[in-house]
Amino acid sequence: METAKDRVKRAYDADQANPKKAVKLGDVPTRYELITPEWLSAILCKDARDAKVTGFELGPKNDGSSNRRRISITYNAAGSAAGLPSSVFCKAAESMGNRVILGPTGTAQGEVDFFGKVRSRLDIEAPVGLYGAFDPETFNYIVMMHDLTGKATFFDDHTTVLSRDQAEQMVRLLARLHARFYESADIGTPALPYLTWPDWWTRMMQVSPDFGTSCDRGFAAAESVLPARLFARAKEIWPLTTESVERHRKLPKTINHCDVHLKNWYVTNEGKMGLADWQIVTIGHWSRDLIYALSTSLTVENRRAWLDDLIRIYLDESASLGMPRTSFDEAMLLCRQQTMSALAFWTITLCPADGMPAMQPEGLTFEWLKRIGALMDDLDAVDSFS
After folding, report:
1. Whole-model pTM above 0.85?
2. How many CB atoms are located within 10 Å of the residue 101 CB?
3. Is the pLDDT of residue 356 over 80?
4. Residue partners of 290: CB distance under 8 A and separation at least 6
């Protein structure tokens, strides 16, 4: 029986054997070197009379869960006069490993849908899309966004320390995101065509059957940065991770970003916090986003000092935007439980499952595991399911 990995490999091999240049709107380049001025013109110049792209230059490769590159662009006189963007930022799935984790799971299509169907409905700081396409036959995709270079600073260094104001902005942004689609009638319709978090998780397990085993290996490999009390309960971690995901089936639902670690945040030149990398949008409970963001984005010391206040700020903000009021104790219980899958995202990063690419630098991965582990220990997360 052909597996999802087999289908991806077959399609990938066919792409490599018969590479085709991207020349018209709707084409999905299988690698950046197959982009043409004609394709860029079709996307960027469609609303500017007589404008054409005359040349472009690919920026350095930046590979992780997706393959990212900036593209610098030159135009003819009409394009320059129209003030078209001189550079764009793209995400794609060039390698087979990237297609395995982004294609069959619905992740690539989800990011295309975010920029095509959701971004314009959100009053938050986030990148603005220019183009997105997914090929369900080859599992290839690309999204193109306005380039934020010179306009914002991303938190690429895991030693960055957020200020209290930045942390408060972070939880307020999440509240606006979650309130906008809380229990929306659009959930599950073509307007918001996302998998639920448990269904996304199940699909990932089908694509990577050794996901759980790899997470266990990652947990073992992280012993040096995990609290001894938490590490001693290693055998309980994966079963509780599965349970924490399944709890979303019975909880109120909204859109979740689902990968809100610090490296996906940025601050604009005006000091406004923004959230990027919308490739794992799913439908689930807001507590996963909230505790995942706070556990990875704050130093252990600041998280200990600020956590209760930040959760209360989130609850006040979300209630002011129309979400039902949740008590602090209930919110804290939900957050304790949702630390489990946040941990799994980084144990799998430390020890990727078969076929997965290397997704993050090891130093960053260990730091996030240290922060998540400390939070789980402080909050007795493993005991929150009884």
Report:
1. yes
2. 26
3. no
4. 171, 174, 311, 314, 331, 335, 338
